[in-house]
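Open question from group meeting: does this chain pack into something compact, or does most of it stay loose? Before anyone orders reagents, we agreed to write out a predicted structure and look at it together. Recording both the input and the output here so the notebook holds the full record.
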Amino acid sequence: MRIKGTRALVTGASSGIGRAVALKLARFGADVALVARRADALENVARQARGHDGTVLVVPCDVSDAAAVARAYHKVKDELGAPDIVVNAAGFGVWKPFLEITEAEHTRMMNVMYWGAFHWIRAALPDMIARGRGHVVNISAGSGRFALPVTSGYSAAAFALGGFSEALHREMLGRRIGVSCIYPGSVRTAFWSERDTPRRGIPPLVRYAPKLSPDAVARNVCYAIWLGMPVRTLPIFVAALARANALWVRLGDLILWKWFVPVVVALVLVRVLVR
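Structure tokens returned:
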């Protein structure tokens, strides 16, 4: 599906991945509706997006509130038009051991990542079906392919979003409506905080691996839309780990916790020897 000349709606657009996606879609010629709770932060993103030719609409909304989403969708439809592209990038995560996560925190993670996407898709999908075109992109996480310690709530939400996306992709086959799920590894945003993350729960492979830029994730969102790709896992080592973990969970354990140092040493030796 092409992006130029379409109408796109992006949740979580005030910062991080959502902001990068919104700016990328605006750059490629889409009219963009920016959705997040913080109106002031959305206005800052809107000023940058308006540097391109398309229309930009600011829509403050808490995606976890179904009634608020319904009102916001009608606002977008009235002022911009029914969206051709919906990107669900809103997220909330708390990385703690399971017994330390409060029920409210666990509920909030599910409400933002899973139910937030559900509400927007439920609102937008009938119009997409009526027009016979559209694309939905859901931003999950690497921990939606393989779960880490201290991420029980976040991984539950990420896995739920991935399963929902896969089922909906197959349901929409033949309707000219694409459904994609993006699973990025660690991304350089305020979402990831070494200070607030229990180090004992994060394996070295995750802790020390290079982090993606939000712009790299945004590029992959565009690839998924252009090429109709149902799944994108990035970077490549996260995709490989996800495949190994799907084959055998104990293999995932070994890669994450036992084989990191030998693999790094071997790679360094190879690099030195081939010089």
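Observations to bring back to the group:
The longest helix spans residues 103-131.
The first strand starts at residue 7 and ends at 11.
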